[in-house]
Amino acid sequence: MSDQLDTHQKALQINLDPTKYGVFAEIGAGQEVARWFFRVGGASGTIAKTISAYDMTVSDAIYGQSDRYVSRKRLIAMLDHEYPLLVERLKEQRGSTTRFFAFATTVAAKSFQRKDETHGWMGIRFQSEPGSEPSDILMHVAMWDRDSLQQAEAVGILGVNLIHAAMYLISNPQAIVNALLDSLSIDRIEVDMIEFRGKEFAGVDNRLLALQLVEKGLTNAAMFMPDGRIVQPADALYKKSILVERGSFRPVTHVTVDMVRGAQAQFIQEPNVDGKNLVVLMEMTLKNLSAEGRIDHQDFLDRVDMLATLGHPVLISNYGEFHRLATYLHRFTKNPVGFVMGIPTLKELFEERYYTGLSGGILESFGRMFKNDLKLFVYPFKDPQSGAIITAGNLRVAPHLRHLYLFLMENFFIQGLRDVNEANLTVLSRNVLKMLQDNEPGWEPMVPNEVAALIKQRHLLGYQG
Question: Which pTM does this prediction carry?
């Protein structure tokens, strides 16, 4: 992150720049962002108007009625109202020399009444040059400070960072993202969703920015839909039953599809799972995405495009340990959560060397993972050497963990997948990848037809034809 300018210097630079002029609309946490511009001096050079509509009736009278006041819909309504009004009033006077902007926040900060998670939406609509069509940057934030004054301070700093980045880094969206947590940390405030839209960002792929949020430590997880639309995880997962398949997906194979199909068929038979209220997530961790110690962005997009053919949302996360992923998902739902995995992954779960960082070791990890309504659905594995089929029922773990494993099996926390297509057990994604990269025949039958067509048409994953 940039260390060239602190928050004070950023606000002052904008105030002293006569080519930038805007309006601030902040709901729910006071004038935390505008206050910075007043504090450093010269605010008359930046601020045309500030407004803070605390009362819901007053807010509705200005921006229209809303079922949720802290939401993307409300944020856009604020920008839709404030930006055109600013341009209408000042275009004749200074439109030829000024880049107009409207900045808005709607925040649910910590209060005596609020005990749940505190969060907010923040955005800016701005011109890249005088008279140009505006572009938007929208984002959702979660606030982790325990004190309301600290939360307000973090919102103020983040807002200044966003405005400054939009004004001076417009040609580099990646630099804009990197600058957002200047003078902040993920321990204080988290940006878990960002969306660039408008003429200036026509060539921006928001999926890459979602990856960047996780990669650069602005959040631990980001989510987008099959059509590439970035979504706030809390909105997409709220009160849902969730089934997750973790993988590298290089490439998507028939095994990928068979795992989801089989797990979903068993998951919806669980007592508290509503099949109509179920989200199936395809998840990739940063480790899954790393090739040779780094993340190849084109390789990432190739995998995402293949996953899109399955029609499920994609979650990018920094939760290498399953118990951390489980804790994250249970922030949004009390409904059942299921993880679908293969035998090799299940064996790794029972490797105690992965839990040396926990004082309670493997028992602490499993306690965290299974304390809520969570199930593991396990896909069988055919040993390529012996041809033996290993299942959840015959898997051997370390002798001193055998009783723990039996307990989890007998209480159906771990369930073997039934009715799998045994023809797929010989399909290994690493072999498929090598075949398609080496232009060896015979890989196409190992992947879904839509995936094969996409790989050939767009030369994904190094396919040369």
Answer: 0.91
